[in-house]
Design brief:
About 20% of the residues lie in helices and about 25% in strands. By secondary structure, the chain is α/β, with parallel strands linked by helices. It has one domain: Ribonuclease Z/Hydroxyacylglutathione hydrolase-like (Metallo-beta-lactamase, Chain A). The N and C termini lie close together (about 5 Å).
């Protein structure tokens, strides 16, 4: 299994001549009006056979990328979504097939399973387990710390690698007031705990540095370094575009 880190939360996985990506984006679209342009590069994936979407926020679901993919799997959108209009627009643009938590699909050389995740704004979100070539990884979008980790490990593990958000973003979007002082996704230390609970021998930080626009969207200081320190020997920091090979 060859895994390439894309920008922000995105990764690309190649196996058996097929390629899938999770949360690939080429830009921030309408989200830029709130958080400014991307602060890091967002390299596009190669031609995709399958795309998996953790949730329909614009920084994880890019219609410009996903509309060209033959097969897209995603969670549902509910009527109370934090960015209801944006999420509905993304849903209409990308189409795709709704997959419920704990539902598995065989897609070419890949077996993919949606597992529970918790979004910081209460919107539907899943994490994705991907298995191919006898290897298995989990990608956790921008989830919070939650109580499903043990069940995920018992039902879907063991894992060879976990890809975890680490920026611990505190958000003051105008759509929701009063504002919460607490992070909307995992901070570095929480991500290290999640890796331990999942018993993943390799833990890769994602979802940091591309967006930092206080006070609307403020990440923690040095998310990558703090995660590496907290996760210890599990931590494997990948530069954007760098590849991890699980053999």
């Amino acid at each position: 299994m060859h895994i390439r880190r894309l920008g922000w939360a995105g990764i690309e996985i190649e196996s058996g001549g097929a390629r899938l990506a999770i949360d690939p984006i080429a830009g921030l679209g309408d989200l830029e009006q709130f958080v400014g342009p991307p602060r890091t590069e967002l390299p596009p994936p190669g031609p995709l056979d399958l795309a998996l979407v953790t949730h329909l926020h614009r920084d994880h679901a890019d219609p410009d990328v996903l509309s060209d993919v033959r097969r897209v799997l995603r969670p549902a959108v509910d009527d109370g979504a934090f960015l209801e209009v944006a999420a509905t627009s993304a849903q209409e643009a990308i189409g795709g097939t709704v997959v419920a938590p704990w539902e598995s699909r065989s897609e070419g050389p890949f077996t993919v399973t949606a597992v529970p995740a918790v979004d910081g704004f209460g919107d539907p979100q899943v994490s994705w387990v991907v298995e191919a070539d006898g290897r298995r990884i989990i990608h956790c979008g921008d989830t919070l710390l939650h109580g499903h980790w043990w069940r995920i490990r018992m039902r879907c593990g063991p894992f060879d690698a976990a890809f975890l958000p680490v920026n611990g973003a505190v958000c003051e979007f105008p759509h929701r007031t009063p504002h919460s002082p607490f992070a909307a996704d995992l901070d570095p230390e929480q991500a290290a705990v999640a890796a331990e609970l999942l018993q993943a021998p390799v833990a890769v930080p994602i979802h940091y540095d591309t967006i930092h626009h206080p006070p609307v969207y403020a990440q923690v200081d040095d998310p990558q370094g703090r995660f590496a320190a907290a996760a210890g020997g599990r931590a494997r920091v990948l530069a954007i575009g760098e590849e991890l090979v699980l053999s």
